[in-house]
Task: structure prediction
Amino acid sequence: MVINTNISAQSSTRLLADSSSMLAKSLARLSSGSRLVSPDDDAAGLAVSMRFDAQINRTTAAKANVTNAASFSQTQDGFLKKVSKAFDRMSELSILAQDVTKSTADAALYQTEFSSLATYISDLATKDFNSISLFSGTDLGVVVDSEGATFSMTGIDGSAYDLSAEDVSTTAGAATALTAVKAAINTLATDRATLGASVSTLNSYNDQLSVLRENLSAANSRIKDVDVAEESTNFARYNILVQAGTAMLAQANASQQSALRLLQ
Result:
């Protein structure tokens, strides 16, 4: 029996320290909900999780871009619906102005309404969406994924609908205006179909990004989120080990007291 070196106490101290460390780590995992409390928990897993986090954030940003672009296109189409009604009325006026039973004064009234509608349509060039012109005719590249790939939205040129130069106050002018209005209606039909295709494509990208973000989040969760049931079991285990280790350390320290009896 020795006094200077208490091997039992040293061993108990080391084991107690290990159990206390594991208990603290288990408690940190349960309180944070994360399995990766520190890099040494799973170095490779932490690196993968960080990349997933960054990709998820980029995907969320791309989804916002796509949603805003779809709103942009839908706003354009909202204006073009009104333009379509105006063109319908202008084509009607172009026919009415060619009625041989109408006087010059009647034709002048048709021209007044026709000119007013033309001014309304020309005002489209001034419309914008968050300071971005809706009808500048410029194609817009929309970022549609986390790697920066883009989808090109075809621009709509509002100047193609300008009929302010047309005059239906005469029969000949009305006939010329009718031809111009019909051409503008064809252009408008093509533009609205183009917008519809863009919105449909953007909605597909939006759905794709939603599914991607969901899958990435699930994969990331499997790496970094703690399994509460399993970790609760570990916590109970380490808690018992710490209590037992504390008791055994006290016992190991007390065992040296028997050496004193030999000196009495």
In short: The mean pLDDT is 87. Helices lie at 7-32, 43-96, 104-122, 171-224, 228-255, 257-263. Strands lie at 128-129, 132-133, 140-143, 150-153. The chain is about 70% helix and 5% strand.
